[in-house]
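Why this split exists: single-chain examples teach little about how molecules sit against one another. For that reason, every record in the complexes split bundles all components of an assembly together and asks for one structure covering all of them. Below is a record exactly as it appears in the raw files.
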Amino acid sequence: MNRFDYVRPRTIAEALSAAAQPGSAYLAAGTNLIDLMKIGVARPARLVDLNHLPGLDAIEGLPDGGLRLGAQVRNATLARDAGFARRFPAVAEALLAGASAQLRNAATVGGNILQRTRCAYFQDPDSACNRREPGSGCDARDGENRLHAVLGWSDACIATHPSDFCVPLVALDAVVEIEGSDGAREVPLRNFHLLPGTTPERESVLAPGELVVALRLPPGADRFAAHARYVKLRERTSYAFALVSAAAGLHVEEGRIVEARLALGGVAARPWRAEAAEIALAGAIPDAAAFRRAAELALAEARPSGENGFKIELARRIAVRALSLAASGTPTRLPALPASPFASSAGGLHD
Amino acid sequence: MSMSVTFTINRAARTVELDDPRVTLLDLLRERLDLAGTKKGCDRGQCGACTILLNGRRVNACLALAISHDGAEILTIEGLAEGDALHPVQAAFIEHDALQCGFCTPGQIMSAVGLIGEGEAGLDPERVREGMSGNLCRCGAYRGITEAVVAATQAMGAAGQEDAA
Ligand SMILES: Cc1cc2nc3c(=O)[nH]c(=O)nc-3n(C[C@H](O)[C@H](O)[C@H](O)COP(=O)(O)OP(=O)(O)OC[C@H]3O[C@@H](n4cnc5c(N)ncnc54)[C@H](O)[C@@H]3O)c2cc1C
Ligand code: SF4
Ligand code: FES
Ligand code: FES
């Protein structure tokens, strides 16, 4: 790990001015940042510690009915907040399907959104990686790329964004609240992460030194609560990143879908909102045929970026599974294996 | 730059001069405070051997910077027993043969104490396994570990509302 200066601001203004210095990085729990510093992928000159800043760790209901999640709220605290889990069950399920209990106790809302890709070449300073070192090439193109993107990738980079949490949040139109030295602004989470294009090193819309202060769920985002699920396929049942995942929310009235939400994880450099699928589902009867059609639309533009063509059909099937589970109703208690497509009891297809 | 940080570790106040901000909680415990019960497996958040309770919550000590946790309350495997009386989770691990080489055991036990405190797994082995998935065991003692955690939950009267009902 490189040496760095450590700064412990007491106000947001102090944090912003400390991070204005080039080479600064904000430290949340550090479960991603410290890991990357240990392997020499991140080498910040200065760490600006967010953990002693008051006011960033609240879960607040807003007068308009929305909900504001402070950037320093811990992933486990949010998932266990009974009111939150009742209104946003698919978000709670996604949180509980990520990492391990220990990591979720530490990891924050802001850090989760801003976690870096798990591409093995990105994590290896001896490999060529345009995202880590612009212009150096991309060793994933001819390397181990089974887990890489099938949507929105470019010749410069085929990495995916690994967060589970972000997938249902994008489906629910969450908004990111940002503060910088020029003032405050907000950006819809669906536009927050950037597709690689020719500049994969630009991972999000955040300018250097800008701070994520909160995430907001808009008023009415809880109208999907009765029919909301997250499904995540992994290479082992727990404590593993998604191969592909899907968040589905349905608003059903009198046997018809009034409105649908669908987003996919593990398929692109951003959580992938499947709008064409949502439009096709509106007004439909929630049955297998409608879900399969929606899944076809969601993956219509998908193409392999390497040895990963299998992910396209897998993603379709996970989308169908998430929509079917959502249609049958949000369970009153989360299944023993959150988000797993596999049964937790012998003989069952799934929970 | 040197910074003085204070912790309550296993119920005792400890002040440490940190001359280097790179020190993790794991290295602080093992290298500077002679508390080597907390193990270093992967040092990257992938195995759970370094699990401690930080302000009452289980976390991986290897990914936590000590300097950032100034003022925290820490419980490690060394602070679990009361004198000669083992903690119920320690007793259950012995009773159920929940270890072989023992390298993962301090992390498993601290994780189990955290899990029981969270109160969500109750006596359901499937939920216990899922709740303990952040702790790998190369010896594959998982069966005994699950049995021990269920037994300790029962012994501590902490089965949780779901299962008590
Ligand atoms: C073994 C392992 C398994 C994992 N499995 C999963 C998984 O299955 N699913 C999943 O979704 N995640 C998984 N994770 C990733 C985990 O969710 C992230 O490491 C965590 O969410 C990061 O949060 P943090 O608070 O530790 O962020 P940090 O590591 O502190 O920060 C991450 C990045 O965000 C920046 N940052 C943090 N907060 C802010 C802010 N408020 N404003 C601006 N910038 C900020 C930091 O500078 C840094 O670049 C896993 C991690 C590990 C180690
Ligand atoms: S896929 Fe992206 S992150 Fe991975 S090596 Fe290529 S450029 Fe780097
Ligand atoms: S040593 Fe910390 S998780 Fe492996
Ligand atoms: S007992 Fe040997 S690693 Fe678990």
